[in-house]
Design a protein that fits this description.
The protein is an alpha/beta fold. Helix content is 29%, strand content 27%. The protein is built from six helices and seven strands. α4 links the parallel β4 and β5. The longest helix has 16 residues.
């Protein structure tokens, strides 16, 4: 099912999403990759304050390439989400509403998604040039010294993603494998 949603993401909207839903996001996303996650985690371990309030926000695991003239960013494809898994449960416990990346998540992240009523979304890997066309504005808001891994605030319009893990822990990757096996069984 196609759904048009606004970010930051309202909890009622999050809970209405199901694994397999296609979503088109408009509003504000924040980018953060490995280095930014590590830094945020270290700050939290030392009882410090994060540079952004994560409540109901969506983090996109992306580091853009340099922008071409007249564009806010260059290619803007997702990175592998599992690289952030060590840090993600604590960020979800702070109210993070959703994450966008590619690939599977650990059981600890899935448990934190369920516990916090959040969702994990996937963007199409290899489509960074197309995804960048949905980015209207880009601004570094923290950790500028990290270059492309700095935290950016993106304004997006109809950014496409698919719900992979919903608030109940339903996992599209597992559902697809089971469905494939079922179809193969009935074809024998």
């Amino acid at each position: 099912m196609d759904k048009y949603i606004t970010a930051p993401i309202d909890k009622a909207v999050v809970e209405s999403l199901n694994a397999g839903d296609y979503v088109y996001i408009s509003g504000i996303l924040y980018t953060a990759r490995d280095a930014a996650h590590k830094r945020m985690y270290e700050i939290l371990q030392n009882d410090g304050n994060l540079p952004i309030d994560l409540k109901d926000q969506i983090i996109y695991y992306m580091g853009p390439s340099p922008a071409r003239e007249g564009r806010p960013v260059g290619s803007a494809g997702p990175t592998t989400a599992s690289r952030m898994d060590k840090y993600t449960p604590e960020l979800l416990d702070l109210g993070l509403g959703a994450m966008i990346g590619k690939g599977k998540r650990s059981q600890a992240v899935i448990d934190a998604i369920k516990r916090n009523k959040a969702v994990y979304l996937a963007a199409v890997g290899g489509a960074g040039a197309l995804l960048s066309k949905c980015i209207v504005e880009s601004e570094v808001v923290a950790y500028e010294d990290l270059g492309t891994e700095a935290i950016r605030k993106l304004k997006v319009k109809d950014f496409p993603a698919i719900v992979v893990i919903d608030t109940n822990g339903n996992n599209l990757y597992e559902i697809a494998v089971k469905e494939h096996c079922r179809v193969e069984e009935t074809e024998k």
